[in-house]
Design brief:
Radius of gyration: 19 Å
Order of helices and strands: EHEHHEEEEHEEEEEHEEEEHEH
Structural class: alpha+beta
Strand order of the largest sheet: 3-6-1-8-7
Number of strands: 16
Strand content: 25-35%
Helix content: 25-40%
Shape: globular
Length: 280
């Protein structure tokens, strides 16, 4: 299930200037709400057949960057020129999710930023998005940078983009790995898979924990792409994201065009009927 969060900019609190790299702070705000409502979170998990765990970063959901209609960029700062911004958050489980999201976010405020500038955002509205019907082929848009890493010969890790020769394999291994972690067994359905790029990729370098001793930089890419694979794998990717560091808000995607199933079937329900489900 996917929801749009409409956030009002409370410029009277700290102003309306965000750091360009705000994703770590946004992810921290999301997980803070889960930690503060952990019993509610565990009840929601168990009602959907998932085992309780101690770590809420279980990749059963994904969330986008902020959508800010008008901005002015000055060096590493984003000047927000509107009164409202938006973000999207998706969850793989369905039962009780609407109520769970409402209790988690309704009327809540987030303060995002670093030591140089901060912005307070208040959740003004939560809108449930129509559920797509998943077919075998769809075109997607990245709502947050998609991140993949591969090992160098010296065993250090390297960020790679769509020009990397094995990029499509990284994509497929990522979604297959999600399936296996969720259902506790390898995917044994139709293994037909194809991936193609539909737009010029934009490289994004995002700082994590800026101006702290733990500062690091994540490299991801924003682009449109076309994907053919089993419908259940489309559903998992759409709801839980793709690639590395999804727990930090990377790899959230939106469907631009799709071949839908004739009966708008929920493939997750079918898979759960066949096997026990475990948490990631």
């Amino acid at each position: 299930m996917r929801f749009k969060l409409v956030l009002s900019v409370k410029s009277e609190s700290f102003g309306s200037v965000l750091p360009v790299s705000y994703q770590y702070e946004l992810s921290a705000a999301v997980y803070r709400r889960i930690r503060e409502n952990f019993e509610l979170y565990l009840h929601w998990l168990s009602s959907n057949g998932f085992a309780p765990i101690d770590d809420c970063r279980n990749r059963l959901f994904s969330f986008s960057n902020l959508y800010i209609p008008r901005i002015r960029v000055e060096y590493d700062r984003l000047h927000i020129l509107v009164k409202r911004v938006q973000m999207w958050i998706s969850f793989l489980p369905v039962r009780g999710t609407h109520e769970f999201v409402k209790q988690l976010f309704s009327g809540e405020t987030f303060v995002l930023g670093d030591r140089r500038s901060r912005v307070e955002l208040e959740v003004e509205d939560i809108v449930e998005c129509p559920a797509p019907g998943f077919g075998e082929e769809a075109e997607y848009l990245a709502l947050s940078p998609i991140v993949f890493m591969v090992a160098r010969p010296n065993r250090s890790m390297e960020y790679v983009g769509p020009d990397y020769p094995g990029y499509a394999d990284c994509f497929y291994r990522s979604v297959l790995g999600k399936y296996e972690k969720i259902f506790g067994r390898p995917f044994d359905g139709d293994t037909g898979f194809s991936w193609s790029l539909l737009s010029e990729p934009k490289r994004k370098g995002i700082f994590m924990m800026r101006f702290t001793p733990e500062e690091s930089k994540v490299i991801g890419y924003m682009y449109k792409f076309k994907l053919s694979m089993s419908p259940i794998l489309h559903q998992i990717m759409y709801e839980t994201g793709i690639g590395e560091k999804v727990n930090l808000g990377f790899g959230c995607v939106e469907i631009l065009r799709q071949d839908t199933t004739p009966n708008d079937q929920n493939f997750l329900s079918d898979e759960k009927d066949d096997t026990s489900v475990k948490i990631i």
